Amino acid sequence: MKLFVKFVAVVTVVAAVFSVVSFASGCAEVRRDVLRLHVVAASDSELDQSLKLKVRDAVLEKGGELFDGTVTADEAEKIITPRVDELKAAAEEVLSENGCDYKVDITVGEEYFATRCYENFTMPAGVYTAVRVNIGPADGQNWWCVMFPPLCLPAASADADAFFTDDEMKIVSASPKYEPRFKIVEIYESIKNKIVNR
Known about the structure:
Number of domains: 1
Number of helices: 6
């Protein structure tokens, strides 16, 4: 009987590990396929938070075809980087019009994000390709969005099914509230990110 209990325990542990590894692999696929936009305010003051949204709108408007949901994560650096100065100028112009002399820094690169929920989809924790817009010292709360697939851009709408595989859809449509593996992946990815960035 004791041998049977041990066997069941081992099988349960192996199944749990396999389940988490499989889930983590699916999360990695989601991260590879997603391009994010991250706008960080200068501070948490009401004025700076308001300016953050104005900068966001100016960058999205000036970016036009860059931010219409067609530029993939793979293409982002090659397509967006040559337009960075143009986007910065548009952002700094709107700041100047609002009596602010903050400088804006825009980069395309890899950035770590914690697990985030947006209405009816979830982005698992980990490193994504992102367009990051830093306003001034960038010490305030941020605004973020998924640019590809275009899941939350005001100018574009998309059916996630058209962009994600079935396995990826199971992940992005799950809620961290009911899916504990999101937390396990987040802890692992957070530790990995800290080690890499030491």
